[in-house]
Amino acid sequence: MARQPSLLIVDDETNVALTLQMVFERDGYAVRTANSCASALKLLQNGHQFDAVITDLNMEKENIGLEVARAALQLHPKPAVVLCTGYASVDNSAAALQMKVDYLATKPVDLDELKRAVRRLMAFRE
Amino acid sequence: MSEPIKTTKTALIVHADMSVLSAFQSSFVSKGYVAILARDLPTALLALTQHFFDVAVISSRLAEGGDGWPLAGVVHLIFPKAFVGVLTPETNVLTLQAAINNGVTQIFDASSNPDHVVNASLTGQQAGPSKTSSEPGTSIH
Does residue A85 belong to any structural domain of this protein? Predict the structure, then answer.
């Protein structure tokens, strides 16, 4: 039996995290959620492995989602990392490009596009 | 005794302007690279089927209305260890988003000096074995 792909969704808006959790669970993913950067970092640094991480950008602080992305990108095996934000700027987008974030989705998120992106990234990741 | 395996690396350069292609060609060849040139999307796609690329420098605007961003994405998917640089007339959120979502390594201003872009490309290129075996030179498709 194929292993269920695992996903970490990080968003301080509980409704957004739960909606994404429902959408991806319906597609067969095992989903964990975190409602802050701090909670996400605990999960990432405590040996939990994820195939993909979807994180909001602005939570406890502006652009703190980049910290989640940085921590995820340091893991081995490296999960696909997706940033979701309604506040993309040249500075935070340039930082995301430089740290090799895999995908930048702007809110309001097109769920079909997001699902396609996650599926494609997971298929091609190392 | 068998021939030693040569490890010359190959760069793909895609730009609508022949003079820009020529400048990049000179710069890559001076660094010992084989340079494969293309002015438009079909030619570049054909080149992807015929060569192994270590570096690609692609203009976001190609001949005949071609879009360089999805081409960069295709290069990244086929050659995930290659350095993929895109030349773009402006840096804004949309171009940065296109870069991230297409697996681009770095974006450069369209008016950047080719030597600067080539040096940055070679510095940023991930180390890895090359399948190429030809002498430094240039192919124009």
Answer: yes
Domain positions in chain B: 13-140
If one counts the domains in chain A, the total is 1
Walk along chain A (126 residues) and give the pLDDT tens digit of each residue: 578 999 999 999 999 999 999 999 999 999 999 999 999 999 999 888 999 999 999 999 999 999 999 999 999 999 999 999 999 999 999 999 999 999 999 988 999 999 999 999 998 875
Domain that holds residue A61: 6-124
Q: Residues of A numbered 6-65 whose beta carbons fall under 8 angstroms of chain B's beta carbons: which are they? A: none
| B96 interaction partners in chain A (CB closer than 8 Å) | 88, 90, 93-94, 96-97, 104
> B13-140 maps to which CATH number?
3.40.50.2300
Is residue B72 exposed (0-12), middle (13-18) or buried (19+ Cβ within 10 Å)? buried
ipTM of the complex: 0.93
Residues A50 and A6: beta-carbon distance below 8 Å: yes
pTM for the predicted model, two decimal places: 0.88
CB contact B97 to A (< 8 Å)? yes
